[in-house]
């Protein structure tokens, strides 16, 4: 059994503007000692998913299951959750100032946290451990620094202090939500290094939330790509980088400088993340997808295992052929062919007449498809006629 098993997590908020469906059926698991990276643009539901596990989304409507060592976090009482927070699951946030109390000395805060969870630990012992932890996370002269207030620390040092606090009780799982976003690149690399080293030393499981695939490349064993409150793709790290299936993952890779595997130039994903009140029909990514087909607008894809990958955990929620993996030309040809067929289906009359309609004409059926940059026909390489590669999955869209 995994340390944490989240199944079909759904979280929504009632607001004056309508119901915000922030998380819409997400499942993932984290094993002991492993790192799950959760990646996605702003508003994709990364923070809400994990905050809900910790009981930190008051007022939200929540369903699903989140078994931590076999017990459901979503139905645990507040007393049990208080024990779990810190002692069993530690959290590191983007902004340490929101977690460190400005009016208490840093050492004292770690000391108090230890004593709150371990009433038998005396003040001196707790103090010694706090100083030791500050030393472990690389804060120089930890005994002196323990006497200082958070504002006397630099950003990087505050983040180290947060890590010291998260590790002080030796939790089994740490949830790190954008832990290095506010730091400059050098300090970011140091902090990630530190987290990796400590994780190995303490055999802690880690959930690393970020919008930066570069961070995932450094840290994660497994990756969950989120878009519009759902999982778009899940895989182990290497397959996700080298054999992505979902166009959103591909878009993220092609727009991340350090992660652009095989991409020769950076290409931002056109358009904006969706509203979570008024969610697009069919595939939630369709308004931005360069491969949008007719069925994408009406049918919602579910996570399916891709084919031809040696990662059995690799799944993707996209109607493109499941064997179209990676950023190479062959995969691109498969996608383009599927798109051409998928768009043709909208015009059964034309097809029946025996005409092979231009894909660029058929695409109009999908109205707001991306920025109109690629039309399928434009860079088609002319696959051999009559060759049957299985085309798009299923046959749902056929008239
Ligand atoms: N308390 C709340 N009430 C209403 N809507 C909320 C609430 N908390 C979060 N949301 C909405 O839920 C959606 C998901 O938010 P979440 O914070 O999980 O995004 P995220 O993926 O962590 O983004 P970021 O990268 O910006 O941190 C957003 O649209 C957000 O506005
Ligand atoms: S091809 Fe269709 S199903 Fe796949 S991501 Fe694009 S719009 Fe969604
Ligand atoms: Mg967030």
UniProtKB/TrEMBL annotation:
It comes from the Bacteria. Residues 347-368 have a biased composition (Low complexity). The keyword Transmembrane helix does not apply. InterPro entries: AAA+_ATPase, ABC_Ni/Peptide_Import, ABC_transporter-like_ATP-bd, ABC_transporter-like_CS, Oligopep_ABC_C, P-loop_NTPase. Keywords: ATP-binding, Cell membrane, Membrane, Nucleotide-binding, Transport. GO terms for biological process: peptide transport. Pfam families: ABC_tran, oligo_HPY. The keyword Transport applies. CDD domains: ABC_NikE_OppD_transporters. This is ATP-binding cassette domain-containing protein. It comes from Actinomadura physcomitrii.
């Amino acid at each position: 059994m995994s340390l944490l098993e989240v199944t079909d997590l759904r979280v929504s908020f009632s607001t004056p503007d309508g119901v915000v469906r922030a998380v819409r059926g997400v499942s993932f698991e984290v094993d002991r000692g492993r790192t799950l990276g959760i990646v996605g643009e702003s508003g994709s539901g990364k923070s809400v998913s994990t905050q809900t596990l910790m009981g930190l989304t008051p007022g939200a409507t929540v369903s699903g299951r989140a078994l931590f060592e076999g017990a459901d976090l979503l139905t645990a009482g507040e007393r049990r959750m208080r024990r779990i927070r810190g002692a069993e699951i530690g959290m590191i946030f983007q902004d340490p100032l929101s977690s460190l109390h400005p009016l208490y000395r840093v050492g004292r805060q770690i000391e108090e946290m230890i004593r709150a969870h371990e009433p038998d630990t005396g003040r001196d012992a707790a103090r010694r451990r706090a100083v030791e932890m500050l030393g472990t996370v690389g804060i120089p002269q930890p005994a002196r620094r323990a006497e200082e207030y958070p504002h006397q620390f630099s950003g990087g040092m505050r983040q180290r202090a947060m890590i010291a606090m998260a590790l002080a009780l030796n939790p089994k799982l740490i949830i790190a939500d954008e832990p290095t976003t506010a730091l400059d690149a050098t300090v970011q690399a140091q902090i990630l290094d530190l987290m990796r080293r400590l994780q190995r030393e303490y055999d802690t499981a880690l959930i690393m939330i970020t919008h930066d695939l570069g961070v995932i490349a450094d840290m994660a064993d497994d990756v969950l790509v989120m878009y519009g409150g759902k999982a778009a793709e899940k895989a182990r790290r290497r397959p996700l980088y080298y054999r992505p299936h979902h166009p959103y993952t591909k878009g993220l890779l092609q727009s991340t400088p350090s992660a652009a595997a095989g991409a020769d130039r950076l290409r931002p994903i056109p358009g904006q993340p969706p509203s979570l009140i008024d969610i697009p029909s069919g595939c939630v990514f369709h308004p931005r997808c360069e491969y949008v087909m007719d069925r994408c607008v009406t049918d919602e894809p579910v996570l399916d295992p891709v084919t031809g990958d040696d990662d059995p955990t690799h799944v993707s929620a996209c109607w493109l052929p499941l064997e179209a993996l990676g950023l190479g030309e062959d995969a691109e040809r498969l996608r383009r062919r599927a798109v051409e067929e998928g768009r043709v289906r909208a015009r059964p009359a034309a097809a029946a007449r025996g005409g092979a309609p231009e894909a660029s004409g058929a695409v109009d059926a999908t109205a707001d498809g991306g920025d109109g940059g690629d039309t399928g026909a434009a860079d088609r390489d002319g696959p051999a006629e009559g060759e049957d590669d299985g085309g798009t999955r299923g046959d749902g869209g056929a008239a």
